[in-house]
Recover the amino acids of this structure.
């Protein structure tokens, strides 16, 4: 297992972590500058932030700053209530693929979606098995364009508390079932993003990480689970402030040969987004060394 | 599958559902009267409510009203930071067993506990595998007294969002692994409580219900998953108001031969606990017929 205590060369910042600074929106160009100024080597930006800053301008700034990407957030959201919705989701995913290529991302992260309409509070139906089938079909359809673009797809299992509205793939086992069905050759075109926040509770975690193996482990995300957790979406903790044994899980991932970035992804309305982004980034660096 | 549309003979009310009425605490004796007045045949009371009302007085009132129990809430909370804590938990569980016997409960529901101290926001450690081992040992130790008392133990897998602080058994598969290890003969002394709120998301749900079989299916709890869910603990929905396909899950349970009560358990700070308990109970009856 790599020693993170002496430097932060393997730290990546998911840009949502400093999406807000002192309660105000922080534009992506400023986030990238703040990261580069701290010797942070990689980021994982969100599509809405890239769109606001401009795709080509962002690609240029990344190059100028020498920043790598650890992923691109995000494609997915496959299920829909009708054929037009499925087609719209596919086309949006094709655009996400192109953006990921332009930005030089190593993978496109897939948050696969849940019951159609549920995110807006009006689920079209209650058939989660049907939604899962649409996810399977949607990934199958996206895989060929992704291969052609040379852009690996990283399915991110989300915590079961998001099964209804954000992602109906909720365990690593489920994600790997899709990988095995669609890419049995383990070509590297399809894999998983392991975010400790989503999977730390899973009694099968170690075994499923081993099942994934090096070819399927495309990204590793960290933050922490707070007790109490005050909000289902936006109360993630800084590494070390919660109950997740992050080094243990990183050890399992690295035992498979994973040697990429450890990406910090924190959504925190009531705490970290209220602080100054510089303080948040400095804390990420410190905790990457001490708690990851 | 039984037809619930014509009557509510198989409806049970978990008394937490009307723990508060119009924002005020509602004493258990009043809850029991309100249930009996509506022809509700069973309840599942909580220990704190029973303690406040008196154990013998509650047993007497239940008899006088002709109310059955669908379970007793709850034993468990096995993990502890030291031997004294483990022993205290065991002794408390022995008292819960006795109370369950006195009240004529068909089973003692076990919410097994998480990381010691996490419920108070100060987890003693991050070793969830260790906590799970303590749960296994705790249930093993409780099983003999439970057999002697003729009181089945029903392990309730809780949603993974409670893994840290309330229960580190988070899937039916995990609960059944414990059952298989400790009661391989399927004697009926050890089984599971299936609460749709906790397990609806699980892609293995149908298969694990079949694995449980009639001998292990000791209780069936219903409410609904709301989108959005505004609080991790106390924002459960009334059946029919959320995204859970309850009849489908009940069908799977009944296909195994389960023919017991369907117990409504709703914690709802912002909605149902603010309403009048009579309205809540009437709604439970209506939704039991239409949405369960």
């Amino acid at each position: 297992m790599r020693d993170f205590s002496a430097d932060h060369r393997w730290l990546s910042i998911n840009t949502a972590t400093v999406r807000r600074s002192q309660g105000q929106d922080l534009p992506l160009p400023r986030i990238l500058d703040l990261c580069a100024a701290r010797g942070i080597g990689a980021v994982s930006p969100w599509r809405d932030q890239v769109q606001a800053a401009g795709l080509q301008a962002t690609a240029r700034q990344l190059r100028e700053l020498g920043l790598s990407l650890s992923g691109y957030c995000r494609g997915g959201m496959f299920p829909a209530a009708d054929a037009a919705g499925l087609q719209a989701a596919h086309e949006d995913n094709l655009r996400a693929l192109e953006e990921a290529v332009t930005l030089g991302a190593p993978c496109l992260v897939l948050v696969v979606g849940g019951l159609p309409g549920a995110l807006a509070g009006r689920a079209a139906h209650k058939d989660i098995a049907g939604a899962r089938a649409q996810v399977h079909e949607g990934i199958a359809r996206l895989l060929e364009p992704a291969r052609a673009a040379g852009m690996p797809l990283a399915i991110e299992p989300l915590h079961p508390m998001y099964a209804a509205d954000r992602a109906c793939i909720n365990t690593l086992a489920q994600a790997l079932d899709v990988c095995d069905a669609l890419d049995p050759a383990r070509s590297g075109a399809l894999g998983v993003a392991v975010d400790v926040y989503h999977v730390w509770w899973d009694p099968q975690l170690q075994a499923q990480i081993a099942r994934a193996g090096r070819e399927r482990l495309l990204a590793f995300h960290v933050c922490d689970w707070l007790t109490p957790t005050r909000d289902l979406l936006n109360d993630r903790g800084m590494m070390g402030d919660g109950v997740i044994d992050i080094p243990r899980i990183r050890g399992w991932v690295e035992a498979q040969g994973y040697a990429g970035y450890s990406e910090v992804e924190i959504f925190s309305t009531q705490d970290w987004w209220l602080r100054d982004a510089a303080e948040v980034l400095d804390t990420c660096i410190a905790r990457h060394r001490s708690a990851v």
Chain B touches chain A at residues 115, 118-119, 121, 123, 126-128, 132, 159-161, 163-165, 168, 170-171, 174, 200-203, 225, 227-229, 232, 242-245 (CB under 8 Å). Chain B is about 40% helix and 15% strand. The domain at 11-291 of chain B is CATH 3.20.20.150 (TIM Barrel). Chain B has one domain: 11-291.
